[in-house]
Amino acid sequence: MRSRIELSDAESLSGAWAALHNDVEFTISSNEVHYLTTMALAVDDDLVSHLLLKKIRLAATREPISVHASTVRMNSFLEYAFDGGKERFCQLVHPSPHAPSYGVSVASLHGAGVLGLRPGQTILWPDENGTLCDLRIGHVENCPGMSDWLGSRTESPLSC
Questions:
Q1: Taking the mean position of all CA atoms in its chain, how far away is CA 105?
Q2: Choices 3.30.2420.10, 3.40.50.1100, 3.10.50.30, 3.30.1360.30: CATH for 7-143
Q3: Could you give the dihedral angle defined by the CA atoms of residues 134, 101, 34 and 26, in that order, rounded to the nearest 10 degrees?
Q4: For residue 16, what are the contacts with CB-CB under 8 A and spacing of at least 6?
Q5: What's the per-residue H, E or C state across the chain?
Q6: What's the pLDDT score for residue 149?
Q7: What is the pTM of this model?
Q8: What pLDDT, on a 0 to 100 scale, did the predictor assign at position 8?
Q9: Are the CB atoms for 123 and 24 separated by under 8 Å?
Q10: What order of strands is seen across the sheet that includes strand 103-105?
Q11: Where are the chain's structural domains?
């Protein structure tokens, strides 16, 4: 069972993490920033909350059509490895009791960790005890979104 990291420790660890990763490229879609910020503020885990907020602050925010197709975002399917372990397959999902068995919540420690990364990137990410370990992204697949199908449009596809 995970020992709870105190708020002051979560603040310190997230600050140290941000300083170590200030030059790492994270990308988040502009249409997900508000949602992700809300998730970070609502999560009960202080460490996840602080790390997700730091990651959002460090990330380059791009229009959905400008985010690289292999960037981990909400609903991405991906393979990643943590702390030198074997690759895990998952889908980055919204926190829900109805998530698939392979779903990893964006409001979880690993879910917040993989967000905004691309294949081949490795960052240091804390485990449940606050020890920084390697988190490496293997492969990422994203389903096409509406902007992929419609391209950039100035008018709504539903307008008459």
A1: 9
A2: 3.10.50.30
A3: 20
A4: none
A5: CCCCCCHHHHHHHHHHHHHHCCCCCCEEECCCHHHHHHHHHHCCCHHHHHHHHHHHHHCEEECHHHCCCCCCCCCCEEEEEECCCCCEEEEEECCCCCCCCCEEECCCHHHHHHCCCCCCCEEEEECCCCCEEEEEEEEEECCCCHHHHHCCCCCCCCCC
A6: 56
A7: 0.84
A8: 76
A9: yes
A10: 103-105, 88-93, 77-82, 132-141, 122-126
A11: 7-143
pLDDT score, position 159: 45
From CA 130, how far away is CA 155, in angstroms rounded?
A: 48
Q: Would you state the structure tokens that stand for residue 25, as one six-digit string?
A: 């490229």
**Which of 18, 24, 29 minimizes the C-alpha distance to 71?**
29
Instruction: Kindly report the length of the chain.
Output: 160
pLDDT score of 160: 43
pLDDT at 141: 95
Walking along the chain (160 residues) 10 residues at a time, the average pLDDT comes out as: 65 88 92 96 94 96 93 96 96 94 96 97 94 96 68 50
* pLDDT at residue 111 in the model: 97
